Amino acid sequence: MPRRPISKKAALSHSKVLAVAITAGLGLTSVTGASAQTTSNKKVTVSAAELAQMKAEIAELERKVADLESQSAAQTQAQQQTVQTVQATQAQVAATQQQVQAAEQYARTKIGDTLGGLGGVKWTFGGYLAGESVYRSRDTGDDISTKFSNIPFPGGTSTAPISTTSGATTTYPVTNARNSQFVESARQSKLTIRVEGDVNDTTHVTGYYDMDFLGGAQTANMNESNSYNPRVRQLWSAVDWDTYGLHLLAGQAWSLLTLNRIGMIAGTSEAQLPTIDSQPVPGFTWARQTQIRIVKDWDKKWWLGLSLENPQTAGIGAVAGKGTKDYSSSTATIAAGNNYDELNTVSLNQIPDIIVKFGADPGWGHYEVFGISREFMTRVTPTTADGGPAATSNQTSHGQGYGFGMLLPLVRNVLEFQFSGMTGKGIGRYGSAQLNDITYTPSGAPQPLKENMLLGAITWHATPDFDVYVEGGREQEDSYLTTDANALPFGYGSALLGYNNSDCLIYGAPSDCTGQTRRIAQQAAGFWWKFYQGKFGKVQFGAEFAHATRTLFADIHGNAPTAQDNMLFTSFRYYPF
After folding, report:
1. Which distant-in-sequence residues (6+ apart) come within 8 Å of 542 by Cβ?
2. How far apart are CA 507 and CA 515, in angstroms?
């Protein structure tokens, strides 16, 4: 039977039914029997053939949806593979970078391996080669390092008696008072080696060696071969713990009381003066000696240090007096023994010098204060009336000192001011002038001498290649006066002891220049010109003029004569490292 054509109205109904069927096929609605209900509650009749056609169309749509889902899954998998490829590439780049860094580290430390260090040890060489000269208007017989107490007076005997009763004498080099001196020297040339290694990120180990050629054994001279021995300046090791802010040092280094530029860590921050003379301007407090030092820092801003340092009694002033002594002999030194030159002496000491220092770096300038405690000992044999040799005993006394220092950047990187001072008893060895530490009491015990020292210096960094400096300082001792067993004057330096300086300034006078040194002062000015700085190192030239004076204690007539020395230094230095 021929099929009757579907009307326009029936076609519209057919499309709606198809839509319903599609949604039903997709699980969005349902169709029962051969009819479906529209939103207008009108029934639509669908034949079995039409329903089959709609199911086929639904199946095709489901296939397309499945294809789309498959394509989406493939794209997701491709993206994941791309991410994995990128991550693998990044890991390979990181591994390559580590290999490059390891190779660079090996290259940097290869010299350490060659010299016996391990792979993580860094070696840094420093120092300079120096060709220097000094002219002195009065001959002190010194090399590039000036001994200020050697500045001669024109008059006085070479061995002048201070007191015939005490038997004490003092020596003055008379014949060179009118002689000038010119010396050329390369002996201030020096070599430094710094070795550094990291135990971990917060624990660091450092070793440091600093040497020059200014040592002078008793047999050394410059007659022909200039046979001077090298000299150890510094030789120490240190451990730094960043986590705890602790710094431990053992070995020979600058004394803890030496002024620092910043902080309190050895080897990098000592505020050394720019002077050419290897003996700094009087008033500069310093020493280089063996020590055990522990330092604590708080945020590298506040510092507290304790150091136990090698003791020596560096100067012993002869006593004088009109009375008698209560001892037949007293000494603070003995002949040097094994590993020393036997022509020298070493002092009697039982405990180390103890130094405590506090430092601050608040943001502008560096500031510090310190204290030092010292002990002196003498071996005393009393007079026969007091027991003689059988009653020989050790006598001790205590010395101490207090000091301060500061370094101020008046104009940052351009103008710098340095100022320091120290006062106390028995502190002579810690000053550049090396005045006496002690004298003796009437019983032969050591008597620390009072002393004070001051230093001021300004450095102008005119350009990156040119520095100008001006320095001045002085060290001065007080006299010591007491009475002996007979109530007569006894001591050191006082006019009441009978000194006579009337002939000190008369050239060739045979006597009457018996006073002892009270004060050493010096003013100096100089410059450094770094005329080459490049890949071959640094070369610089410097010149300095210095005026030094040595003044004696006043005698019974009020005479306190002064001997002067004008000095001109030059230096040519090459820093290859």
Report:
1. 274, 276, 526, 527, 528, 529, 569, 570, 571, 573
2. 16
How would residue 103 be classed by pLDDT, with cut points 50, 70 and 90? low
Query: Could you tell me which residues come within 8 angstroms of residue 286 by beta carbon, excluding any fewer than 6 positions away?
Result: 254, 255, 257, 258, 280, 430, 432
Strand-strand pairing, 466-477 and 450-463: antiparallel
Is pTM beyond 0.85? Reply is: no
Distance CA(130)–CA(386), nearest Å, equals: 58
Note whether 431 and 282 are within 8 A (CB).
yes
pLDDT bin (cut points 50, 70, 90) of residue 505 is confident
| Residue 546 tokens, joined | 């210095």
Residues in CB range of 186: below 8 A, 6 or more apart: 129, 130, 131, 132, 213
Average pLDDT over residues 372-387: 93
Q: What angle do CA 210, 215, 216 make, to 5 degrees?
A: 175
- Dist CA 362 CA 368 (whole Å): 11
Which candidate, 174, 227, 244, 96, places its Cα nearest to that of 504? 174
Are 419 and 271 within 8 A, CB to CB?
no
Q: Is 145 exposed, middle or buried (0-12, 13-18, 19+ CB in 10 A)?
A: middle
Q: How far is 234 from 229, CA to CA, in rounded Å? A: 15
Can you list the pairs that 555-558 forms with residues at least 24 positions away whose Cβ atoms lie under 8 Å? 555/495, 555/499, 555/500, 555/501, 555/502, 555/514, 555/515, 556/495, 556/496, 556/498, 556/499, 556/500, 557/500, 557/501, 557/502, 558/495
**What is the distance between the alpha carbons of residues 284 and 524, in angstroms, rounded to a whole number?**
13
- Spatial contact of 188 and 117, defined as CB atoms under 8 Å apart: no
Residue whose tokens read 């006496």: 436
Residue 6 three-state SS? coil
Task: Report the pLDDT value the prediction gives residue 417, as an integer from 0 to 100.
Answer: 98
HSE, side-chain direction, 13 A CA sphere, residue 47? 8
The rounded distance, in Å, linking the Cα atoms of 572 and 129 is 8
Cβ atoms of 550 and 504 closer than 8 Å = no
Q: Could you give the CA distance from residue 445 to residue 395 in angstroms, rounded to a whole number? A: 5
SS3 321: strand
Q: Provide the residue count of the chain.
A: 577
Mean pLDDT of the chain: 85
At 565, is the secondary structure helix, strand, or coil?
Answer: strand
Q: What pLDDT does 135 receive? A: 98
Q: How far apart are CA 91 and CA 93, in angstroms?
A: 5
Average pLDDT value for residue range 34-54: 59
